[in-house]
Design a protein that fits this description.
The mean pLDDT is 97. The chain has one domain: 4-Layer Sandwich (Purple Acid Phosphatase, chain A, domain 2), CATH 3.60.21. β1, α1 and β2 form a beta-alpha-beta unit. With 237 residues, the protein is an alpha/beta fold. The longest helix has 17 residues. The strands form two sheets. It has a five-stranded mixed β-sheet with strand order 3-2-1-9-10, covered by helices on one side. A five-stranded mixed β-sheet has the order 4-5-6-8-7, with no helix packed on it.
Length: 237
Amino acid sequence: MARLPDGTRIYAVADIHGRFDLLDQLFGRIDLDLERRPIQRAIQMFLGDYIDRGPASREVLDRLIERSRTHEMVFLKGNHETFVYEFLENPAVLGEWRRFGGLETLLSYGLKPVLNPTPAEQMELAHTFANVLPESHLQFLKALKPWFSCGDFFFVHAGVNPRVPLTEQLEEDLLWIRDDFLTADANFGKLVVHGHTPVAEPDIRSNRINIDTGAFATGRLTCLIIEGSEMMFDNGA
């Protein structure tokens, strides 16, 4: 049975997608849990996709950065975060980013993108975004990790390539993989905790646990709490 080292508790959260309200409420519940059940080491683990789709991407990043100054937190990279770098370097990517909820992110930074911008308007929008994006946010995005492992658990945004050892995974698979991973029944070497693919309820399998419950649309931001070999879920219900 998968377990964490003694004296360690992990609070794992996936796919916030701009729902600052749900994140703030969750932090209140985590703080209450830590007050009631103190532990030597508490790690708050975030599996990527902080931005896009929801209305408050900027506020989410502000809150995560602020809290990381006083708590041990690990931030993983999601596929949505890659669009920020790509848009700044190649404004034409906006056409794809908007399909993933990128316009909502730009709006949260006070920008007013038009629905069908010309190439010149895309360049101007990218230039303005670069100017309003706080340095702390840029550094946060640059520092995101592709994966994190603790005890018998492997944390990642999307999943892993079942044909490749955990230590040799490609970042593209870690951020984007779906079917090859989701349909695999193989032992990955560690129990993989992931998000990326929304499910109605946490999906617990012998080799993986999906905790993305579609917060931006459902209003349910799920937190998986792991201590030793025990696991429980908190979605605010």
